[in-house]
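Lay summary. Proteins are chains of building blocks that fold into shapes, and those shapes determine what they do. In this project we predict the shape from the chain. Here is one chain we studied, written as its sequence of building blocks.
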Amino acid sequence: MRTKSIVFLVCFITVATWLIPSNLSAQNKPFTVVLDAGHGGKDPGNRGNGYYEKEIALNIVLKVGKELEKNKDIKVIYTRKTDVFLELHERAAIANKADADLFVSIHCNAHNSNAHGTETFILGLNKNAQNLEIAKKENQVIYLEDNYEETYGGFDPNAPESLIGLIIMQEEYLEQSISIASLVQDNFTKQLKRNNRSVKQGPFWVLHNTYMPSVLIETGFLTNKNEGAYLNSKKGQDEMANAISKAVVDYYNSIKYLYTENKSSIERPSTKSVPEVDIYENVLFKVQIAASSKKIDVKPYNFKGLTMITREKEAGLFKYYYGSTSDFNLIKALQNEAQNKGYESAFIVAFKNGKKTKLSEIIN
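And here is the predicted shape, written in a compact code that computers can read:
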């Protein structure tokens, strides 16, 4: 099922030759990750099957932090380490004050169906009804805050015009946000065999005000009996935390290489607007840039600096893909970027419900 937006997407796709987070420009600055456990205190989050989202999110965040703190090059900051209530603008302020290099907000999903699976959001405007509903639920915490009308300038989480009116301040970080989101989803899918609901865009206030690559991770549905029990278990929380922390480390290693080896070649990113969101539900688009009988390490230095590379084995060949998204306009922009990098024959492939499908069948 295809959902096409009727409004302009107020976001930008970065097309830099070498894209480095400006936060990393300071010498000897540790790579700083801010971990945000959603909800807390008087805001329990969703209560699917009687569980508390605020508790599960915090448990996962603390486990992610514990893993990341083993890396001497990574500094971890928490928006909360206990069951306290934080206003949304405070969460973003913590990250901005720390001059962080990455913001990761962790949540659990809910739905009135038997929906299940993981999805990771980057900031964007999307008319997909389900994505909007998720964003509205996460944004509604502002009603629990004192003086919210003054703090948020009349923003109404339930009003479409307010969601559309969010001005994205993160355009230069969009590709990096997609990169970390893709790594997270790949780990959930390949490592943990969770149902992949893909990387998506949503107008989340907590991402709106952060000035660094930022993602909001929905680790699964508490309203699904099996998934809720998994996320409430120590095993489930350990596995989710390991998958997230590994994605953060892999992302950091790709950025560290670019910064340390190519800092003399750094250019500020140029941008171009993407006029519409063009979402195909249950479909993932990728850009195939290479195929080889050799297994090549998916590191940026092997792919001309591109950081969102995945590898799949098919019919005896290793195929290498750039990007992963349900947005056809976005994948076309990434195809153009790959071609500009020198992969002139790069082409788009489609996977529907995890199965490779002819692009013409999807588009038509």
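What the prediction tells us: Residues 234-262 form the longest helix (29 residues).
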